[in-house]
Protein backbone atom coordinates (compact mmCIF):
# COMPACT_ATOMS: atom_id res chain seq x y z
CA UNK A 1 0.00 0.00 0.00
CA UNK A 2 1.24 3.48 -0.90
CA UNK A 3 -0.17 6.74 0.39
CA UNK A 4 -1.39 7.49 -3.14
CA UNK A 5 -3.99 4.76 -2.68
CA UNK A 6 -5.60 6.37 0.39
CA UNK A 7 -9.25 7.32 -0.02
CA UNK A 8 -9.40 9.62 3.02
CA UNK A 9 -6.92 11.37 5.28
CA UNK A 10 -7.83 12.83 8.67
CA UNK A 11 -5.27 15.63 8.84
CA UNK A 12 -3.54 16.93 11.94
CA UNK A 13 -5.64 15.67 14.84
CA UNK A 14 -4.28 14.49 18.15
CA UNK A 15 -4.26 10.69 17.88
CA UNK A 16 -4.42 8.84 21.18
CA UNK A 17 -4.16 5.06 20.96
CA UNK A 18 -2.80 3.49 24.17
CA UNK A 19 -2.68 0.03 22.59
CA UNK A 20 -0.08 1.23 20.10
CA UNK A 21 1.60 3.76 22.38
CA UNK A 22 0.52 6.70 20.22
CA UNK A 23 -0.21 10.14 21.60
CA UNK A 24 0.59 12.98 19.24
CA UNK A 25 -0.46 15.02 16.25
CA UNK A 26 -0.82 12.58 13.38
CA UNK A 27 -2.53 11.98 10.06
CA UNK A 28 -4.78 8.95 9.80
CA UNK A 29 -5.19 7.38 6.37
CA UNK A 30 -8.25 5.36 5.41
CA UNK A 31 -8.51 2.72 2.68
CA UNK A 32 -11.47 0.45 2.10
CA UNK A 33 -13.21 1.67 5.23
CA UNK A 34 -10.30 0.81 7.52
CA UNK A 35 -7.32 2.52 9.05
CA UNK A 36 -4.46 1.92 6.65
CA UNK A 37 -1.79 4.32 7.88
CA UNK A 38 -0.95 6.53 10.86
CA UNK A 39 1.97 8.93 10.47
CA UNK A 40 2.99 12.53 11.23
CA UNK A 41 2.38 13.51 7.60
CA UNK A 42 0.66 11.48 4.87
CA UNK A 43 0.92 12.63 1.25
CA UNK A 44 -2.49 12.74 -0.47
CA UNK A 45 -3.19 11.75 -4.05
CA UNK A 46 -5.30 14.06 -6.23
CA UNK A 47 -8.39 11.96 -5.53
CA UNK A 48 -7.80 11.60 -1.78
CA UNK A 49 -10.44 13.29 0.34
CA UNK A 50 -8.98 15.44 3.12
CA UNK A 51 -10.68 16.31 6.42
CA UNK A 52 -8.96 18.85 8.64
CA UNK A 53 -9.26 17.67 12.26
CA UNK A 54 -6.78 20.10 13.85
CA UNK A 55 -7.72 20.71 17.47
CA UNK A 56 -9.76 17.50 17.67
CA UNK A 57 -9.07 14.10 19.20
CA UNK A 58 -8.88 11.02 17.01
CA UNK A 59 -9.47 8.02 19.25
CA UNK A 60 -10.24 4.32 19.15
CA UNK A 61 -14.04 4.26 19.19
CA UNK A 62 -15.26 4.80 22.73
CA UNK A 63 -17.53 2.17 24.28
CA UNK A 64 -20.07 3.26 26.89
CA UNK A 65 -20.43 0.10 28.95
CA UNK A 66 -23.25 1.49 31.11
CA UNK A 67 -25.98 3.25 29.20
CA UNK A 68 -29.77 3.39 29.63
CA UNK A 69 -31.25 3.73 26.15
CA UNK A 70 -34.57 1.85 26.08
CA UNK A 71 -36.25 5.12 25.18
CA UNK A 72 -39.95 5.57 26.09
CA UNK A 73 -39.92 2.36 28.16
CA UNK A 74 -37.49 2.96 31.04
CA UNK A 75 -38.81 6.38 32.03
CA UNK A 76 -36.31 9.16 32.66
CA UNK A 77 -33.52 6.58 32.38
CA UNK A 78 -34.31 5.91 28.72
CA UNK A 79 -32.17 8.23 26.60
CA UNK A 80 -31.83 8.24 22.82
CA UNK A 81 -29.12 5.79 21.73
CA UNK A 82 -27.47 8.14 19.25
CA UNK A 83 -27.66 11.11 21.62
CA UNK A 84 -25.42 9.27 24.08
CA UNK A 85 -23.68 7.41 21.25
CA UNK A 86 -22.25 8.95 18.11
CA UNK A 87 -23.41 12.46 18.98
CA UNK A 88 -21.27 12.21 22.11
CA UNK A 89 -18.23 10.69 20.42
CA UNK A 90 -19.15 7.14 21.42
CA UNK A 91 -19.43 4.47 18.73
CA UNK A 92 -20.86 1.63 20.86
CA UNK A 93 -23.38 1.86 23.71
CA UNK A 94 -24.29 -1.02 26.03
CA UNK A 95 -27.77 -0.81 27.55
CA UNK A 96 -27.75 -2.03 31.13
CA UNK A 97 -30.92 -3.81 32.16
CA UNK A 98 -33.51 -1.91 30.15
CA UNK A 99 -34.67 -4.82 28.01
CA UNK A 100 -35.95 -8.09 29.47
CA UNK A 101 -36.92 -11.52 28.13
CA UNK A 102 -40.45 -10.13 27.64
CA UNK A 103 -39.50 -6.85 25.97
CA UNK A 104 -36.35 -7.66 23.99
CA UNK A 105 -38.02 -7.72 20.58
CA UNK A 106 -39.10 -4.12 21.11
CA UNK A 107 -35.55 -3.17 22.09
CA UNK A 108 -34.15 -4.80 18.96
CA UNK A 109 -36.64 -3.29 16.53
CA UNK A 110 -37.15 0.18 17.98
CA UNK A 111 -33.76 0.94 19.60
CA UNK A 112 -30.92 -1.19 18.26
CA UNK A 113 -31.86 -1.42 14.59
CA UNK A 114 -32.66 2.27 13.93
CA UNK A 115 -29.55 3.52 15.77
CA UNK A 116 -26.45 4.64 13.87
CA UNK A 117 -24.42 3.81 16.97
CA UNK A 118 -23.74 0.15 17.62
CA UNK A 119 -26.11 -0.96 20.37
CA UNK A 120 -25.60 -3.96 22.68
CA UNK A 121 -27.40 -5.15 25.80
CA UNK A 122 -26.93 -6.68 29.20
CA UNK A 123 -30.43 -8.11 29.49
CA UNK A 124 -32.33 -7.65 32.75
CA UNK A 125 -32.67 -10.71 34.96
CA UNK A 126 -36.18 -9.44 35.83
CA UNK A 127 -39.12 -10.09 33.52
CA UNK A 128 -40.17 -6.47 34.03
CA UNK A 129 -36.79 -5.19 32.86
CA UNK A 130 -36.07 -1.55 33.58
CA UNK A 131 -39.72 -0.53 33.25
CA UNK A 132 -40.07 3.13 34.27
CA UNK A 133 -36.59 3.11 35.75
CA UNK A 134 -37.28 0.28 38.23
CA UNK A 135 -39.58 2.67 40.08
CA UNK A 136 -42.02 -0.02 41.33
CA UNK A 137 -40.08 -2.31 43.65
CA UNK A 138 -42.95 -4.80 43.86
CA UNK A 139 -42.29 -5.88 40.27
CA UNK A 140 -38.83 -7.12 41.20
CA UNK A 141 -37.34 -9.87 43.31
CA UNK A 142 -37.12 -13.66 42.86
CA UNK A 143 -40.85 -13.87 42.04
CA UNK A 144 -40.22 -11.72 38.96
CA UNK A 145 -37.43 -13.88 37.52
CA UNK A 146 -37.65 -16.75 35.04
CA UNK A 147 -34.19 -18.24 34.55
CA UNK A 148 -35.29 -20.38 31.61
CA UNK A 149 -36.87 -17.42 29.80
CA UNK A 150 -33.72 -15.37 30.34
CA UNK A 151 -31.47 -18.08 28.91
CA UNK A 152 -33.76 -18.50 25.88
CA UNK A 153 -33.77 -14.76 25.22
CA UNK A 154 -29.97 -14.71 25.32
CA UNK A 155 -29.69 -17.71 22.98
CA UNK A 156 -32.07 -16.06 20.50
CA UNK A 157 -30.29 -12.70 20.61
CA UNK A 158 -26.59 -13.43 21.03
CA UNK A 159 -25.70 -10.81 18.42
CA UNK A 160 -26.91 -8.13 20.86
CA UNK A 161 -26.92 -9.65 24.35
CA UNK A 162 -23.50 -9.75 26.01
CA UNK A 163 -24.49 -10.33 29.62
CA UNK A 164 -27.12 -10.10 32.38
CA UNK A 165 -27.88 -7.05 34.54
CA UNK A 166 -28.74 -7.78 38.16
CA UNK A 167 -28.63 -6.09 41.57
CA UNK A 168 -27.07 -6.58 44.98
CA UNK A 169 -27.95 -3.21 46.49
CA UNK A 170 -29.15 -2.60 50.01
CA UNK A 171 -32.81 -1.82 49.25
CA UNK A 172 -33.40 -4.99 47.27
CA UNK A 173 -31.26 -6.96 49.72
CA UNK A 174 -33.56 -5.88 52.57
CA UNK A 175 -36.44 -7.51 50.66
CA UNK A 176 -35.05 -10.73 49.19
CA UNK A 177 -31.45 -11.10 50.31
CA UNK A 178 -28.95 -12.71 47.95
CA UNK A 179 -31.48 -14.85 46.06
CA UNK A 180 -31.71 -12.55 43.01
CA UNK A 181 -27.97 -12.73 42.42
CA UNK A 182 -28.03 -16.52 42.80
CA UNK A 183 -30.70 -16.78 40.11
CA UNK A 184 -28.80 -14.37 37.88
CA UNK A 185 -25.66 -16.46 38.24
CA UNK A 186 -27.61 -19.62 37.40
CA UNK A 187 -28.78 -17.96 34.19
CA UNK A 188 -25.33 -16.56 33.38
CA UNK A 189 -23.63 -19.92 33.74
CA UNK A 190 -26.23 -21.69 31.65
CA UNK A 191 -26.01 -19.02 28.94
CA UNK A 192 -22.22 -18.56 29.30
CA UNK A 193 -22.35 -14.78 29.73
CA UNK A 194 -21.21 -12.51 32.59
CA UNK A 195 -23.38 -10.73 35.13
CA UNK A 196 -23.25 -6.99 35.77
CA UNK A 197 -24.03 -6.37 39.45
CA UNK A 198 -25.44 -3.04 40.64
CA UNK A 199 -24.03 -2.17 44.08
CA UNK A 200 -25.01 0.61 46.47
CA UNK A 201 -28.61 1.82 46.50
CA UNK A 202 -31.71 2.01 44.33
CA UNK A 203 -34.90 0.91 46.08
CA UNK A 204 -35.95 2.20 49.54
CA UNK A 205 -34.69 0.06 52.40
CA UNK A 206 -37.22 -2.00 54.39
CA UNK A 207 -36.28 -0.91 57.90
CA UNK A 208 -37.62 -4.04 59.60
CA UNK A 209 -35.18 -6.20 57.63
CA UNK A 210 -32.38 -3.74 56.97
CA UNK A 211 -29.11 -5.66 56.61
CA UNK A 212 -25.64 -4.68 57.69
CA UNK A 213 -24.49 -3.09 54.40
CA UNK A 214 -20.92 -4.28 54.93
CA UNK A 215 -22.16 -7.89 54.93
CA UNK A 216 -23.46 -7.70 51.35
CA UNK A 217 -20.09 -7.88 49.56
CA UNK A 218 -19.11 -10.84 51.74
CA UNK A 219 -21.93 -12.81 50.13
CA UNK A 220 -21.70 -11.32 46.64
CA UNK A 221 -18.04 -11.85 45.77
CA UNK A 222 -17.85 -15.62 46.36
CA UNK A 223 -20.66 -16.07 43.80
CA UNK A 224 -18.85 -14.28 40.99
CA UNK A 225 -16.89 -15.77 38.12
CA UNK A 226 -14.09 -14.37 36.02
CA UNK A 227 -15.54 -11.75 33.67
CA UNK A 228 -18.39 -10.66 35.95
CA UNK A 229 -18.66 -6.93 36.62
CA UNK A 230 -19.29 -4.94 39.82
CA UNK A 231 -21.01 -1.65 39.01
CA UNK A 232 -20.88 1.53 41.12
CA UNK A 233 -18.12 0.34 43.49
CA UNK A 234 -17.43 3.95 44.53
CA UNK A 235 -21.04 4.97 45.16
CA UNK A 236 -21.94 7.21 48.09
CA UNK A 237 -24.49 4.60 49.17
CA UNK A 238 -23.60 1.83 51.66
CA UNK A 239 -22.92 -1.70 50.50
CA UNK A 240 -20.08 -1.07 48.04
CA UNK A 241 -16.27 -0.81 48.24
CA UNK A 242 -16.10 1.72 51.07
CA UNK A 243 -17.30 0.27 54.38
CA UNK A 244 -19.14 2.06 57.17
CA UNK A 245 -15.79 2.68 58.82
CA UNK A 246 -14.80 4.93 55.91
CA UNK A 247 -12.09 2.50 54.85
CA UNK A 248 -12.03 0.18 51.86
CA UNK A 249 -13.95 -3.02 52.54
CA UNK A 250 -11.34 -5.66 53.46
CA UNK A 251 -12.82 -8.35 51.21
CA UNK A 252 -11.89 -6.48 48.02
CA UNK A 253 -8.25 -5.96 48.98
CA UNK A 254 -5.58 -8.23 47.56
CA UNK A 255 -4.56 -9.96 50.84
CA UNK A 256 -8.17 -10.96 51.55
CA UNK A 257 -8.73 -12.23 48.02
CA UNK A 258 -5.58 -14.29 48.13
CA UNK A 259 -6.38 -15.73 51.55
CA UNK A 260 -9.98 -16.64 50.71
CA UNK A 261 -9.38 -17.84 47.16
CA UNK A 262 -12.26 -15.60 46.08
CA UNK A 263 -13.13 -15.70 42.38
CA UNK A 264 -13.61 -11.93 42.59
CA UNK A 265 -9.99 -11.56 41.52
CA UNK A 266 -11.22 -12.22 37.98
CA UNK A 267 -14.11 -9.77 38.13
CA UNK A 268 -14.12 -6.26 36.71
CA UNK A 269 -15.40 -2.96 38.02
CA UNK A 270 -17.44 -0.30 36.26
CA UNK A 271 -17.40 3.15 37.84
CA UNK A 272 -20.33 5.18 36.56
CA UNK A 273 -20.00 8.92 37.13
CA UNK A 274 -23.75 9.51 37.38
CA UNK A 275 -24.85 11.53 40.41
CA UNK A 276 -25.51 9.18 43.32
CA UNK A 277 -23.55 6.34 41.71
CA UNK A 278 -20.12 7.90 42.06
CA UNK A 279 -18.58 9.53 45.10
CA UNK A 280 -15.27 11.30 44.72
CA UNK A 281 -14.37 10.83 48.40
CA UNK A 282 -15.10 7.08 48.11
CA UNK A 283 -13.03 6.88 44.97
CA UNK A 284 -10.12 8.73 46.57
CA UNK A 285 -10.16 6.41 49.59
CA UNK A 286 -10.02 3.42 47.27
CA UNK A 287 -7.09 4.65 45.22
CA UNK A 288 -4.53 3.80 47.87
CA UNK A 289 -5.95 0.33 48.58
CA UNK A 290 -4.67 -2.81 46.81
CA UNK A 291 -8.04 -3.71 45.28
CA UNK A 292 -7.86 -7.09 43.56
CA UNK A 293 -10.65 -6.60 41.02
CA UNK A 294 -9.46 -5.64 37.56
CA UNK A 295 -10.91 -2.60 35.79
CA UNK A 296 -12.57 -3.18 32.46
CA UNK A 297 -11.30 -0.91 29.71
CA UNK A 298 -13.92 0.83 27.58
CA UNK A 299 -11.86 0.50 24.40
CA UNK A 300 -9.01 -1.61 23.10
CA UNK A 301 -7.71 -1.08 19.59
CA UNK A 302 -8.96 0.73 16.47
CA UNK A 303 -10.43 -1.31 13.65
CA UNK A 304 -12.87 0.75 11.63
CA UNK A 305 -12.55 4.48 10.92
CA UNK A 306 -15.05 7.27 11.15
CA UNK A 307 -14.81 11.03 11.18
CA UNK A 308 -17.45 13.59 12.07
CA UNK A 309 -20.14 11.07 11.06
CA UNK A 310 -19.16 7.80 12.78
CA UNK A 311 -20.15 4.56 11.13
CA UNK A 312 -21.45 1.39 12.75
CA UNK A 313 -18.63 -0.54 14.41
CA UNK A 314 -17.36 -3.67 12.74
CA UNK A 315 -18.71 -7.01 13.96
CA UNK A 316 -16.53 -8.89 16.40
CA UNK A 317 -15.88 -8.98 20.10
CA UNK A 318 -13.03 -8.48 22.50
CA UNK A 319 -12.23 -10.94 25.26
CA UNK A 320 -14.67 -9.09 27.50
CA UNK A 321 -17.54 -9.72 25.08
CA UNK A 322 -17.70 -6.10 23.94
CA UNK A 323 -17.17 -5.11 20.30
CA UNK A 324 -13.88 -4.06 18.84
CA UNK A 325 -13.99 -0.26 18.69
CA UNK A 326 -13.62 2.03 15.73
CA UNK A 327 -11.85 5.34 15.13
CA UNK A 328 -13.89 8.44 15.80
CA UNK A 329 -13.28 12.14 16.18
CA UNK A 330 -14.66 14.15 19.04
CA UNK A 331 -14.90 17.91 19.31
What is this structure's SSE topology?
Blueprint: E1 8-17, E2 22-31, E3 34-39, E4 49-52, E5 57-60, E6 62-67, H1 81-84, E7 90-96, H2 104-112, E8 118-124, H3 147-156, E9 161-167, H4 170-176, H5 179-191, E10 195-198, H6 216-220, E11 229-231, H7 254-260, E12 268-270, H8 280-287, E13 294-295, E14 327-330
What does this protein look like?
There is one protein chain. The chain has 331 residues and is α/β, with parallel strands linked by helices. The protein has two domains: 3-60 and 299-330, Urease, subunit C, domain 1, CATH 2.30.40; 62-295, TIM Barrel (Alpha-Beta Barrel). Helices cover 19% and strands 23% of the residues. The protein has eight helices and 14 strands. It has helices spanning 81-84, 104-112, 147-156, 170-176, 179-191, 216-220, 254-260, 280-287, and strands at residues 8-17, 22-31, 34-39, 49-52, 57-60, 62-67, 90-96, 118-124, 161-167, 195-198, 229-231, 268-270, 294-295, 327-330. Strands 6-7-8-9-10-11-12-13 form an eight-stranded parallel beta sheet, with helices on one face. Strands 1, 2, 3, 4, 5 and 14 form a six-stranded mixed beta sheet that branches. Strand 2 and strand 3 form a beta hairpin. Helix 3 (147-156) packs parallel to helix 5. The protein starts with 7 loop residues before the first strand and ends with a strand. Mean pLDDT is 81; it is low at 258-265 and 293-331.
